Amino acid sequence: MSVIEVDRLHKRYGARTVVAGASFAVEEGEIFGLLGPNGAGKTTTVECVAGLRKPDAGRVAVLGLDPRRDAARLRRLVGVQLQESRLPDRIRVAEAVDLYASFHRRPAVRDELLAELGLADHRDTSYRALSGGQKQRLSIALALVGRPRIAILDELTTGLDPQARRDTWEVVERIRDRGVTILLVTHFMAEAERLCDRLAVLDAGRVVALDTPAGLVTRIHPGQRIRFRPSAPFDDRLLTDLPEVVSVRRTGRQLDVTGTGDLLSAVTTVLARHQIIAADLRVDRPSLDDAFVALTGRRSQHRADEGNEQA
Ligand SMILES: Nc1ncnc2c1ncn2[C@@H]1O[C@H](COP(=O)(O)OP(=O)(O)OP(=O)(O)O)[C@@H](O)[C@H]1O
């Protein structure tokens, strides 16, 4: 069942169109990602979904309701954590949660929520004394305090160190496991790949692709590549006869095999049958980042950052 429907959404700021006919639907219980370069219109789109902006054209429905007309009802059903949400420096974690809880009729139990978000030991810590990751987790707690069915999370791990980012991912997964549908805006390929069940890639206000992370990669780069040094000579036909193999190239003692499907297992099985060992075997799979570049013609902004993280 679709819990969010965005149909040919248009939004202009002055003369400038920033969302130009974006359409997508989010299914109940999934983590749905909006991915795209800076200025692609991601935040504007989720602000329209959250009822914070009025679309110029198109239709947005959240749980069958209109985010603007039915704003009061949706406030109880949708939790929103937007970019750069800030709280007063002196407010303590428990006070902030109590304050937000007071806006809701049946709020979550504060200490349970704080424990779930790894903030139980920071109940009395002031906002200013929290680390970046703790601030982000508090902002997620505030989005969840009304026990929403849908959570909208915008760039929630930007500026976090790799460990804090991973901790936040675990929190998001736990929320999803509780049955909350999540609409997530992200710049990070690793985040999209790890968390999202499906992704819409937004470019210049349009959805240019919509699929699972793996589906996007395969659609853009269906090929795979294996490189290895065989322990004994053999005829290339051993590999070229396999339906999965597209090409075989030799450079010195090294073999370079491209193909599709379950290439690795097809190649290693036939080699093993002939008692050949594939030494220094490497599999190159295209990444979501490659798919992103192919779709938008741009490098993802945080690619270098992610590279450091994986190092
Ligand atoms: N209130 C506003 N008034 C005028 N222009 C705006 C306003 N908000 C956003 N914009 C512009 O609209 C474009 C789309 O912005 P938006 O924040 O939706 O994109 P985004 O994909 O979320 O970008 P980012 O990844 O940089 O946050 C940007 O060029 C931005 O400068």
TrEMBL record:
UniProt keyword annotation of Membrane present: yes
UniProt KW Acetylation keyword: no
Superkingdom of the organism of origin: Bacteria
Places the protein is found: Cell membrane
Chief location category: membrane
UniProt-listed SUPFAM superfamilies: P-loop containing nucleoside triphosphate hydrolases
Origin organism lineage: Bacteria, Bacillati, Actinomycetota, Actinomycetes, Micromonosporales
Membrane topology: Peripheral membrane protein
Name the UniProt record assigns to this protein: ABC-2 type transport system ATP-binding protein
Pfam families from the UniProt entry: ABC_tran
InterPro entries: AAA+_ATPase, ABC_transporter-like_ATP-bd, ABC_transporter-like_CS, ABC_transporter_ATP-binding, P-loop_NTPase
Keywords, alphabetical: Antibiotic resistance, ATP-binding, Cell membrane, Membrane, Nucleotide-binding, Translocase, Transport
Segments forming domain ABC transporter: 4-229
